[in-house]
Amino acid sequence: MQTPYLLFTLLILSVLAYFIGKRRSVTVVEGALRELHSLPAYYGYYTALWGLIPALFLMLVWLSFEPTWLAHQTVASLPEEIKSLPSSKLNLQLNNIKNVAAGLQVSQRVDPLIVEAAEHYNRLRKISNFALTLVVLTCSLTGIWLAHKKINKDYRARNVVEKIMTGLMILASTIAIFTTVGIVASVVFESLLFFRQVPFFDFLFGLEWSPQTALRADQVGSSGAFGAVPLFAGTLLISSIALIVAVPIGLMSAIYLSEFAGSKFRSTAKPTLEILAGIPTVVYGFFAALTVAPFIRETGELWGWVVSSESALAAGLVMGIMIIPFVSSLSDDVINAVPQSLRDAAYALGATQAETIKQIILPAALPGIVGSILLAASRAIGETMIVVMAAGLAANLTANPLEAVTTVTVQIVTLLVGDQEFDSPKTLSAFALGLMLFVVTLALNVIALHIVRKYREQYE
């Protein structure tokens, strides 16, 4: 049985186990529910969890070790001349076997040994799938039977279910924490490899970015320049333009929708405004490249300005339009969360609606508004497609929004695409850029939280 069908079967069994456990709890007390320690639903949850969690854990362990076992058994069946190949060539042969087994061979002529090994690989995989299905379903049914047998009127099902759910939540939190630590550690490790080849201060304060390097020792090519200042300047320039567009429009839209607009208009305008967040970024990129950028260039030429065909202004304007919903929707929810009693108290003291909004509502909603702006800023900093299509790839150190610039995220994507060796400075510089972007974003968040906390203390 394939893995998705096996998962679906486990879910069906767990649902049936819930009703079995619930019915069993009612049966043991002959309908006198007051004699049960817990509600019948908890006995159902208890039985369902016993039928689901051990089987899922066993399935996860099995699927984790299955590829290694399949590869080992497949290699063991190969002739001695293939098994004695170096590790890199042996892995290549094994990859060919997997491709043939999956029907992905790119040529009509395939070595008969590879075909035979692929057939053996498929037979092993079928055996593994059958054994997995048998073992997992047996484990699930055994768990349901044990839980069903253990149910009695004095059994503390609620306590057990709550402990299991608490453990699952702790496990989920632990996985999230270790995932974050793993991401940071991998970026830091690769960045340290880069800084062994390129000095840290040359990277951080260098004014020229040209990461092209020679592929081979005998090849004529550039040694590369890895000064990241033009990239951070371009990121800051485009993100600033986007926020200048998005923050005023989004905040004023939120204030109007929450304080002035009628319920009928609000129910129509807010979903319409949020549609902007659902448009794919490539569509924004086309709009910026085909409409906004030519309009800016033609308008600049009328005034005698020199405007690049790809400019930071075009990318920033369209990006600002894209992140308006992040500011408006979240700010609107935060403003609506301000208690109505604060508004009523301000009106009772003689304040106008404008004074109430300025002096009462906005200060009370400031932490949420700052959060929405930070979310919009993070979205702007991390945007790639619009910058590629509207601002270009040129790493120019300039503050002129009419010139072409690039951003950190665009360069990360560009550096990781191509045939460059993974341990070359060009490729490793992508991790250094990611690390610096992470540090800068973290610092901005810490500063913003400090400001919000300080203002909240003054307000309270």
What do these coordinates show?
The protein is an all-alpha fold and 460 residues long. The protein folds into two domains: 153 residues, no CATH class; 188 residues, MetI-like (MetI-like fold). The protein is 77% helix and 1% strand. Strands 1-2 form a two-stranded antiparallel ribbon. The two termini are 60 Å apart.
Helix and strand topology:
Elements lengths: L2 H26 L11 H37 L3 H4 L3 H15 L10 H39 L6 H41 L2 H6 L3 E2 L14 E2 L2 H32 L2 H16 L2 H22 L9 H26 L2 H9 L4 H30 L2 H6 L17 H8 L9 H35 L1
Antiparallel strand pairs: 1-2
The CATH topology of the largest domain corresponds to MetI-like fold
How is the biggest beta sheet arranged? 2 strands, antiparallel
Q: Could you tell me the number of beta strands?
A: 2
Strand-residue proportion: under 5%
Low-confidence stretches: none
CATH superfamily of the largest domain: MetI-like
Helix-residue proportion: over 70%
CATH class assignment of the largest domain: Mainly Alpha
Give the rounded overall mean pLDDT.
84
The oligomeric status of these chains comes to single chain
The CATH architecture of the largest domain can be named as: Orthogonal Bundle
Query: Radius of gyration over alpha carbons?
Result: 31 Å
Please report the number of helical segments: 16
Secondary-structure content class = mainly alpha
Strands of the biggest beta sheet: in what spatial order?
Answer: 1-2
N to C succession of SSEs? HHHHHHHEEHHHHHHHHH
| Count of the separate structural domains | 2
Shape: flat
